[in-house]
């Protein structure tokens, strides 16, 4: 399985936070799973960390490498698709994750129920 982590899922995994749904933890820990983290999540983390809204590792690239996670850049195709995505969800970071999951054929791991308003593969967490 190839999965794209929503930002909060990534942060919960890295912090071993009990908020991480057990199913998400199982899939991320499975050695057969390709886990992908978007540049959009790194961008969101950097912004929210700088304004004191979240705590996150200072060495995010090292943390991603240590966990064997792949990274996904934002390209022009992703950006254009995010711009025309229906406005069910206003958060630009989440909109980017949705289009990246769709374009790159990844299963999105999130607890955000608003993602189900889009045609995107979601990992069932319940």
Report what the structure shows:
The structure is a single chain. The protein is α/β, with parallel strands linked by helices and 126 residues long. It has six helices and four strands, in the order βααβααβααβ. It has one domain: Rossmann fold. It has helices spanning 7-14, 22-29, 39-50, 60-66, 76-84, 92-104; strands at 2-5, 34-38, 70-72, 107-109. A four-stranded parallel beta sheet has the order 3-2-1-4. Helix 3 (39-50) runs antiparallel to helix 6 (92-104). The protein starts with a strand and ends in a 17-residue tail after the last strand. The mean pLDDT is 95.
Count of structural domains: 1
Q: Measured on Cα atoms, how large is the radius of gyration?
A: 14 Å
Helix and strand content put the structural class at: alpha/beta
The helix/strand series, from N terminus to C terminus, equals: EHHEHHEHHE
How many distinct beta strands? 4
> Helical amount among residues, as a percent range?
40-55%
Question: How can the largest sheet be summarized?
Answer: 4 strands, parallel
Uncertain residue ranges: none
Beta content = 5-15%
Quote the distance from N terminus to C terminus.
Answer: 18 Å
| Architecture (CATH level 2) name | 3-Layer(aba) Sandwich
* CATH topology (level 3) name: Rossmann fold
